[in-house]
Design goal:
35% of the residues lie in helices and 20% in strands. The protein contains 14 helices and 16 strands.
């Protein structure tokens, strides 16, 4: 467990550190720091102008110092002389409340104070495109149902193998790689971990995947819906709560012997049921965080894709082992949230799951009726279940009205997030699209 970055550099031949933080829009920002200077940086942090990134600051704000967390350090497997380290933004001695990693750290501390250690795993899907982003990288990847396509995954073996080898070297425990449901789409899975570690790994995975793709002359994108008519990029989260962190964990608090009740018969405990209840209670507002871009709503509200299914929800329902709902309980002691997409901020995704779940436990939230039908074919039979937001503006308005979730995420964070996201929506609405010209030029 690394505590001294200077010693880490000396032991591992590291010449530079990338001191990295993630802004409100999920952008990764970094300074490249020589190893000779890392001791001072570990103590005081690297200086940034917050206004120059997507944070709600002005040019008049003081320096924002990104203080590296040495426990997060990762030596770049494809460039070992460089090490990446996640940082916690600080200003004038105080944590920057709107900074995503700080939001997550605070909520983890809240959960721990109640004896709850949240562990998660994520499934980060991505497309491999040509270097200019205009087409799929594989011109032969044209099957109507390309999921698990053996030939297609082997045509991109060099990229997938390199990324998986690096995860093996890093000790992440990767256990499967596949071609996903859309042409040109891939998914790579690794073992679940404590929420902060999963968020750091998720952040690094996106950086690593893009870097390896560029090395091979391609472009990797986690954009929710990069190609019309094809399945979008999800980022499903598997959630459980334990009695201790890391390897010290012995008991899965969400697990129970199968008993009575809609969740009990699936092996989900009373605390698991109410945590799920919090997710269901706040789902509409949750979408502003889990599906944070204009493009996100072209995935969760999409018509049927070429393969026959979007694999994304549009209604707030839950089920057993059934992939057509927003939440599924595939086995005892955990559940899968299928709402998030590839644009989700790695830190805010974990934070909002914890915020909603804690509120569910505290308020004894009921997840409501379980549906075991095929929502894609029989969803019309479900009456009363709320729909997910139709667009980003709806999601932002619902989040703004959800006072409990806003407070749990932090008022300063919520105000900054809503302010910048509304500006983003206004920018989108001021853009004249080709659709408008094609359909309204002569009206």
């Amino acid at each position: 467990m690394t505590k001294d970055l200077a010693a880490f550099a000396a032991e591992n031949g590291v010449k530079y550190f990338m001191i990295s933080f993630t802004d409100l829009f999920g952008g990764q920002r970094a300074k490249l720091v020589p190893a000779q200077a890392i001791a001072d940086m570990q103590k005081d942090g690297a200086g940034f102008a917050g206004f120059a990134t997507w944070l709600d600051m002005t040019p008049a704000h003081p320096d924002m110092l990104a203080v590296p967390d040495p426990l997060s350090v990762i030596q770049l497997p494809w460039k070992p002389e460089v090490a990446w380290v996640a940082a916690n933004p600080v200003m004038e001695g105080n944590d920057v409340a709107q900074a995503p990693r700080n939001v997550l750290r605070r909520l983890i501390d809240e959960a721990v104070s109640e004896g709850l250690y949240v562990k998660t795993g994520i499934e980060a899907e991505y497309f491999l495109l040509t270097a200019d982003g205009t087409a799929l990288s594989d011109e032969f990847d044209t099957a109507e149902k390309p999921c698990y396509d053996q030939q297609a995954v082997m045509r991109r073996y060099d990229v997938v193998r390199e990324i998986c080898d690096y995860m093996l070297d890093l000790g992440w425990g990767p256990y499967q790689n596949d071609h996903e449901d859309a042409n040109g789409q891939f998914e790579m899975n690794w073992e679940f971990d404590d929420a902060l570690k999963t968020a750091d790994k998720h952040s690094f995975f996106k950086f690593m995947t893009k870097s390896v793709a560029e090395k091979h002359g391609f472009r990797a994108t986690f954009m929710p819906k990069p190609i019309a008519g094809l399945t979008g990029n999800g980022c499903h989260a598997h959630i459980s709560v334990w009695d201790a962190p890391g390897d010290k964990a012995k008991t899965n608090i969400f697990a129970t012997e199968k008993g009575e009740g809609q969740t009990g018969e699936l092996g989900l405990s009373e605390q698991g049921r109410t945590f799920l209840g919090g997710i269901m209670k706040h789902a509409s507002a949750l979408a502003a965080i889990t599906n944070p871009t204009v493009n996100s709503y072209k995935r969760i509200n999409a018509p049927r894709t070429m393969s026959g299914a979007t694999w994304a929800p549009n209604t707030i329902t839950w089920t057993g082992n059934n992939r057509t709902h927003m939440v599924r309980v595939p086995g005892p002691g955990r559940f899968e949230l299928r709402l998030p997409d590839g644009a989700a901020n790695p830190y805010l995704l974990q934070a909002v799951i914890i915020a909603a779940g804690l509120d569910g436990i505290r308020t004894d939230a009921d997840p409501g009726k379980r549906y075991d039908i095929d929502m894609y074919a029989e969803g019309h039979k479900v009456s009363g279940a709320p729909k997910l937001p139709l667009n980003m503006l709806d999601a932002l308005r619902i989040y703004d009205r959800d006072k409990g979730l806003k407070a749990a995420m932090g008022e300063e964070f919520s105000a900054a997030f809503l302010k910048l996201k509304h500006k983003e929506w206004d920018s989108y609405m001021s853009h004249l699209t080709s659709w408008e010209k094609e359909n309204t030029l002569d009206i």
